[in-house]
């Protein structure tokens, strides 16, 4: 599957989770439910995947973790906040760079309509 095909499946699963739960829960609740939904549709999903920082050819394990990595191609960063801001976008872009992935989805579940809470983030390698 391409990154865009994977993203479409992720968005559909996020819609199902949001429809069932609505806004107002903790980020971890949405993460667990989305993880379950993505596995249910047959995608390879890694939860809280550690990302090392490479500095001067030294691999540093300093605590970066991606919420979900799907099929080793798409990163999903989950939020439950009043509004997404630039720091959330920057965090997702940093994770894309560290992982070598091209596409990330930043999903804020604390919205009335989930389509208003989804942002595509592209790493222009």
Overall pLDDT metric: 94
Runs with pLDDT <50, length 5+? none
Using the coordinates above, name the CATH class: Alpha Beta
Elements, N to C (H/E) = HHEEEHEE
Instruction: Give the helix tally.
Output: 3
What is the first-to-last residue Cα distance?
A: 20 Å
**Rg on CA atoms, Å:** 14 Å
The name CATH uses for the topology is Endonuclease, Chain A
Relative strand content: 25-35%
Strand arrangement, major sheet: 1-2-3-4-5
By CATH, the architecture is named: 3-Layer(aba) Sandwich
Number of strands: 5
Helical/strand content category: alpha+beta
Domain tally = 1
Quick one: biggest sheet?
A: 5 strands, mixed
> What kind of assembly state do the chains in view correspond to?
single chain
Percentage of helical residues?
Answer: 25-40%
| Tertiary shape | globular
Any chance you could write out the topology, listing elements then pairs?
Layout: H1 3-21, H2 27-40, E1 45-55, E2 58-70, E3 74-79, H3 86-99, E4 103-108, E5 118-122
Parallel strand pairs: 3-4
Antiparallel strand pairs: 1-2, 2-3, 4-5
Helix pairs in contact: 1-2
What does this entry look like structurally?
The protein has a single domain, classed as Endonuclease, Chain A (3-Layer(aba) Sandwich). It has 125 residues and is of the alpha+beta class. The chain has three helices and five strands. A hairpin with a 3-residue loop joins strand 2 and strand 3 (74-79). It is globular, with a radius of gyration of 14 Å. The chain has a five-stranded mixed beta sheet, with helices on both faces. The model has no long low-confidence stretch (mean pLDDT 94).
């Amino acid at each position: 599957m391409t990154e865009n095909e994977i993203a479409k499946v992720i968005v559909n699963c996020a819609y199902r989770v949001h429809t069932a739960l609505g806004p107002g829960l903790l980020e971890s609740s949405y993460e667990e439910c989305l993880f379950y939904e993505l596995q249910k549709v047959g995608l390879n999903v890694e939860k809280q995947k550690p990302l090392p920082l490479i500095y001067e050819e030294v691999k540093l394990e300093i605590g970066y973790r991606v919420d979900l990595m799907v099929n080793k191609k798409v990163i999903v960063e989950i939020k439950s906040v009043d509004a997404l801001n630039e720091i959330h976008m920057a965090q997702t872009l940093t994770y894309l760079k560290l992982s070598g992935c091209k596409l990330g989805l930043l999903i804020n579940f604390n919205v009335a309509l989930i389509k208003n809470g989804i942002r595509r983030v592209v790493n222009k390698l």
